[in-house]
Specification:
Helix content is 23%, strand content 29%. It starts with 26 loop residues before the first helix and ends in an 11-residue tail after the last helix. A hairpin with a 2-residue loop joins strand 4 and strand 5. The protein has a single domain, classed as Peptide Deformylase (Alpha-Beta Complex). The chain is globular. The chain has four helices and seven strands, in the order H-E-E-E-E-E-E-E-H-H-H. It is of the alpha+beta class. The mean pLDDT is 96.
């Protein structure tokens, strides 16, 4: 089932999320619905707050990038209760957009490398290291679990320049090809 995506201005996007357990109601169905919602919106990542749930769950599938980036195109993951263990001091910048902030893309500085611990959909624990674009996507989705948005990382001058666009999104004046709330 395709879920509505909550956009900028919705309080759930600013909440610090709660951990869940393997007994979370209909968890497998929720994960399936999140992937379906993300695919329908042409995204590569989606966090639970973006579908209105203040829980520590995110999904990523970089398959849409496979043609241009075969090295990362097979990366698909479900992360439950992720905890960022380490981040490199080396940073890289790159443009980011967000399904919750339609029509806006800005340059964001992120750690080049991360180490993260999480549970997969079967509640098997993983501790893994990621770098480059995969690390960027994980950091972006992880921020949603911390109540942060990519626009919070944009330099202050650029943030001021996009303020009216953000206000329009908050007022429900966003145009996109997927269901929003």
């Amino acid at each position: 089932m395709i879920l509505p995506i909550y956009t900028y201005g919705n309080a759930v996007l600013r909440k610090h999320t709660e951990e869940i357990g393997p007994d979370y109601p209909e968890l497998k169905k929720l994960i399936e619905n999140m992937f379906e919602t993300m695919y329908h919106a042409d995204g590569v990542g989606l966090a639970a707050p973006q579908v209105g749930l203040p829980i520590r769950l995110l999904v990523i599938d970089l398959a849409p990038l496979k043609e241009d980036n075969p090295d990362i195109g097979n990366f698909k993951v479900v992360m439950i209760n992720p905890v960022m263990l380490e981040m490199s001091e080396e940073e890289v910048d790159g443009y980011e957009g967000c399904l919750s902030i339609p029509g806006i893309s800005e340059k964001v500085v992120r750690a080049e490398w991360i180490k993260i611990q999480y549970y997969d959909a079967d509640f098997k624990q993983h501790t893994e290291e990621f770098e480059d674009y995969i690390a960027r996507v994980i950091q972006h989705e992880y921020d949603h679990l911390e109540g942060s948005l990519f626009t919070d990382h944009v330099n202050p001058l650029r943030r001021q320049m996009i303020k009216s666009k953000l206000n329009n999104i908050a007022k429900g004046k966003a145009q996109c090809d997927y269901k929003i709330r």
